[in-house]
Amino acid sequence: MSAPALPSSRMDVEGRQGIPPADADNGNENAFESASSKVWKLYEVETDKYDTELAGTWKGVTDAMLIFTGLFSAVVSAFIIETYKMLLPDNGGATVALLTQLVTQSQPNGGNSATSSAIPSTVTSAFTPSGIAIRINILMFLSLFLSLTCALMSTLIQQWAREYLQYSQLSAPPQKRGRVRAYLFEGLTKFQMRRMVESIPVLLHISVFLFFFAFSEFLRTINHTVGVVARCCVTILLSAYLVLSALPLVVSSSPYQTALTTPLRPCFIFLRFIVRFPLQAMKGLPPIVSSFFPCRCRSTQSVSRPPCRH
User: So which domain of life are we looking at (predicted)?
Assistant: First the structure.
């Protein structure tokens, strides 16, 4: 009887013992790496598309803000040139008073003594700006400050968006590029970059309404009737703006939305909770207390239960 044949190679031994050969391990690793590369490649394509659209949206918003703030700041600056004079003493009036005094004193009889004594006190008295002049200039300068702040924030956001795209779309393997992008996007979410972009229109709209209010006050110093009409127009515009801001919170299908809609949403949710909480608590009150409120059990009770007799 002949002896059994010896295995001719190490691959035969590994195959008989149930151990996969080394070439099979290498094949599995290559297949895993290939599948992983496909996943990272798909992640890279989708994230690049999302980041490009996000940066494009931010650029569109900030470009519009830069154009509007440039024009609006020029208008406010033109009015500030006129309104800041209200904080300074009237040199023209002082000149007229001095000339009047000289003319009065040059007369043969020396002029009226009362008039001569009254004019120097008018010229040398300390100047104090009126309250409405101070209020107008405060509102004007606040409006200009907020407008320029919006312009600065828009410029910074455009710079940050360019840097984010530059570092998140590196020329690197998909695995490394995906990890870098995830790290940068985490910081973008952690530091509320989106809310900073949304705050620019809010500040700009506040700046516009401050200017409107200051402009109506300025018109009131010139003519009271014109100032009152301007104030009524500003009030109507502000009321319509607030209604349009709160309308999407009440009717979800409303197409109208302003920059204040998003900041007002938490306030609306809290207000709705305050209104609904007592109504929900009434359902669990004892019969003696609930008798003071109209019963609504007939519309919700089941057929097997007796009707409510409250």
Answer: Eukaryota
Nearest CA-CA partner of 184 in 202, 169, 205: 169
Q: Find, among 145, 203, 183, 165, the residue nearest to 58 by Cα.
A: 165
Which tens digit of pLDDT belongs to each residue from 194-205?
999 999 999 999
pLDDT of residue 6: 46
Query: 100 and 213 share a domain?
Result: no
Reported as a single tens digit per residue, the pLDDT across 221-241 is 999 999 999 999 999 999 999
Residue 295 lies in a domain: no
Domain assignment of residue 293, yes or no = no
The reply to whether 275 falls in a domain is no
Count other Cβ atoms within 10 Å, centred on residue 31.
10
- Which of these, 37, 52, 35, 33, lies nearest to 178 by C-alpha position? 37
Domain boundary among 251, 267, 286: 251
State the sign of the Cα–Cα–Cα–Cα dihedral 23, 28, 32, 34.
positive
Q: Distance (Å, rounded) from C-alpha 278 to C-alpha 284?
A: 10
Answer yes or no: do 101 and 151 share one domain.
no
Could you tell me the residue range of the domain that residue 111 belongs to?
A: 89-125
Are 118 and 136 members of one domain? no
* 192, 201, 247 from 252: Cα distances, Å: 25, 22, 8
| Helix residue spans in the chain (DSSP H) | 10-16, 22-83, 91-106, 113-124, 131-168, 174-190, 193-222, 224-250, 261-282, 287-290
> 216 and 145 in one domain?
yes
Beta carbons within 8 Å of 207's beta carbon, 6+ residues apart: 72, 142, 143, 144, 146, 147, 150
User: CA-to-CA distance for 23 and 14, rounded, in angstroms?
Assistant: 12
Per the domain annotation, does 114 fall within a domain? yes
| Whether residue 156 is found in the same domain as residue 45 | yes
| Tally of domains in the chain | 2
Residues 47, 49, 51: CA angle, nearest 5 degrees: 65
